Amino acid sequence: MRFRSWGRRGPAPLFPPLYGPPPGATPSGPVFACRPMSFDLALCEASFPRIREMDDTDLAQAITKRHQEITPTPVEQTAVLGLISKIKAAIEKISAAPDLLPSV
Question: Which residue intervals make up region (Disordered) (predicted)?
Fold first, then answer.
């Protein structure tokens, strides 16, 4: 048969058959007669039992305590803002007069 090389390596046939692909050229992958049913938790609730609610007051207290520990005090915040303003002023001074720095 002339069109045996369909789906194989090699040169493509000059004239493909008019009646469709040859009998060995099936699409890869599984063929389903119908789509599988989607997962529904309500249908299989017995397989996935609910867990009881946990008391998370200890966790909430620990998170609140840690938040208070790492939050900067107002004094620290003003010190950081002062440093930021000094750095901004130095950068503006450098950008306004680049002749003062020979390495830049």
Answer: 1-23
One-letter amino acid for residue 54 of the chain: M
- For residue 82, what are the domain limits? 71-97
85 falls within a domain: yes
Q: Which residues, at least 6 apart from 4, have a Cβ–Cβ distance to it below 8 Å?
A: 22
Is the CB of residue 22 less than 8 Å from the CB of residue 6? yes
CA distance 15 to 6: 11
Q: Quick check: is 61 in a domain? A: no
What is the tens place of the pLDDT at every residue in 61-81?
Answer: 999 999 999 999 999 999 999
C-alpha 92/C-alpha 77 separation (Å) is 23
